[in-house]
């Protein structure tokens, strides 16, 4: 029986697969900001790698860059999650003990090479989907380098094949097998690979349309999804043809007058965060700050906001974990709402109007919530209510 796809790892592929990424991510390279190394995250170590790292520590070929909290060993072997041989220790402030703050480098990477990194470290900030069509790689914009890519103006936003930064490999992420459901057009109809590819490229193309605002992208895709899902008879070819026949013109969308609906979307997303990770509510003064410091400047940042939407539309886990094309669009709408909320929070804390630096931090915090706190399948379930 086929099941909705779930995150899993896959062995190294025996044959080469096509790899796709967005143009703004295609040449990604770590700039050593240290955001991932200082995020106080659990980093599991696989058994073969643990043995090699333990030997390297014992022989002095590598040494921690900082003292572990409570003077524990650099590799912790008690109270482990499933399939982990050890956990990387952290400092009292939450830094990885192998992170060298002065240089911004990981000493494991520096002294032993990338193959000696735990899988979590090797793959961050990649968000991969592997299905019958190939491997599709987006990035989490919690990474400051990835967030900065949303402000690029040197490349048009589009899907590119064989991105130089991402050679074919067994990336961690959502692996879709022949036993898993393909994306759904609507709750009672499956889309085939060709028709979903057409929809994915269509979503990115709408994000690239210079005539549309971010809100216009959402409104247009909502109209498009409702039109395509009504096609009859339903076949892969009929879905693809319906996408090709969609109006070239988009739908106008206005910047929300208030933050109310965005705060509601943020609260809904927090329902998908486990209790132990859910942040305390922090909406003090956000509504007033939005009206004063965010909304007047919002439209000046249409381009990076639409690139963010494109990054959410491409390599979408929601496509496989949700219940239709409308669910994907609902997820884009929610993601944009979280950026509004986080932008207001950044403006409030910085006591100034929205600018590039504050918007970049808003992207980071929105993706921290969506990609690293919330459970993706639970978000998809919440967003799937729109299919009714």
Structural description of this entry:
There is one protein chain. This protein has two domains: 79 residues, no CATH class; 262 residues, no CATH class. 42% of the residues lie in helices and 10% in strands. The strands form four sheets. Strands 1-11-8-9-2-10 form a six-stranded mixed sheet, with helices on one face. Strand 6 and strand 7 form a beta hairpin. The two termini are 24 Å apart. The N terminus is likely disordered.
Highlighted features:
single chain; six-stranded mixed beta sheet; three-stranded antiparallel beta sheet; globular; disordered N terminus
Q: Shape, please?
A: globular
Calculate the terminal CA-CA distance, rounded to whole Å.
Answer: 24 Å
Show unreliable segments: 1-14
User: Number of helical segments?
Assistant: 14
SSE topology string: EEEHEEEEHHEEHEEEEHHHHHHHHHH
Strand content: 5-15%
**Major beta sheet, strand line-up:** 1-11-8-9-2-10
Question: Which structural class should the secondary elements be placed in?
Answer: alpha+beta
Helix content: 40-55%
Mean pLDDT: 92
Short description:
42% of the residues lie in helices and 10% in strands. It is α+β, with helices and mostly antiparallel strands. Strand 8 and strand 9 (134-139) form a beta hairpin.
List the helices and strands and how they pair.
Elements: E1 7-8, E2 19-22, E3 44-45, H1 47-59, E4 75-76, E5 86-88, E6 99-100, E7 105-106, H2 107-112, H3 119-123, E8 126-131, E9 134-139, H4 144-149, E10 159-161, E11 173-175, E12 184-186, E13 189-190, H5 193-208, H6 214-229, H7 236-244, H8 260-270, H9 286-298, H10 302-313, H11 318-321, H12 325-350, H13 356-373, H14 376-383
Parallel strand pairs: 2-9, 8-11
Antiparallel strand pairs: 1-11, 2-10, 3-5, 4-5, 6-7, 8-9, 12-13
Helix pairs in contact: 5-7, 5-10, 6-12, 8-12, 9-12, 10-12, 12-13
């Amino acid at each position: 029986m086929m099941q909705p796809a779930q995150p899993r790892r896959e062995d190294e592929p025996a044959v080469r697969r096509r790899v796709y990424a967005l143009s703004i991510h295609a040449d990604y390279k770590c700039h050593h900001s240290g955001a991932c190394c200082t995020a106080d995250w659990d980093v599991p170590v696989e058994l073969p790698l643990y043995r090699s790292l333990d030997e390297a520590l014992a022989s002095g070929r590598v040494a921690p860059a900082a003292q572990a909290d409570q003077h524990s060993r650099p590799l912790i072997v008690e109270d482990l999650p499933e399939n982990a041989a050890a956990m990387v220790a952290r400092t009292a402030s939450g830094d990885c003990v192998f992170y060298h703050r002065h240089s911004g480098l990981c000493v494991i990477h520096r002294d032993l090479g990338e193959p000696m990194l735990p899988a979590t470290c090797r793959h961050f900030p990649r968000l991969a989907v592997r299905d019958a069509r190939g491997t599709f790689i987006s990035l989490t914009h919690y990474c400051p380098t990835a967030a900065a890519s949303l402000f690029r103006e040197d490349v048009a936003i589009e899907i590119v094949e064989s991105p130089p930064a991402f050679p074919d490999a067994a990336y961690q992420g959502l692996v879709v097998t022949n036993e898993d459901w393909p994306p759904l057009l609507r709750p009672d109809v499956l889309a085939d690979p060709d028709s979903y590819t057409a929809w994915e490229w269509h979503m990115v193309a709408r994000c690239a349309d210079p005539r549309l605002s971010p809100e216009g992208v959402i409104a247009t895709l909502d109209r498009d999804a409702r039109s395509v899902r009504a096609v009859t008879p339903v076949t892969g070819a009929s879905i693809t043809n319906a996408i090709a026949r969609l109006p070239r013109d988009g739908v106008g969308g206005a910047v929300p007058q208030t933050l109310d609906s965005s705060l509601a979307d943020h609260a809904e997303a927090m329902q998908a965060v486990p209790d132990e990770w859910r942040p305390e509510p922090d909406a003090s003064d956000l509504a007033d700050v939005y009206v004063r410091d965010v909304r007047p400047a919002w439209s000046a940042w249409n381009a990076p906001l639409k690139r963010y939407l494109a990054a959410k539309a491409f390599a979408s886990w929601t496509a496989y974990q949700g219940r239709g094309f409308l669910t994907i669009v609902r997820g884009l709408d929610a993601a944009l709402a979280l950026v509004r909320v986080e932008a207001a929070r950044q403006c409030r804390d910085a006591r100034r109007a929205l600018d590039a630096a504050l918007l970049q931090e808003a992207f980071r915090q929105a993706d921290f919530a969506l990609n690293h706190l919330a459970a993706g399948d639970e978000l998809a379930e919440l967003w799937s209510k729109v299919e009714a």
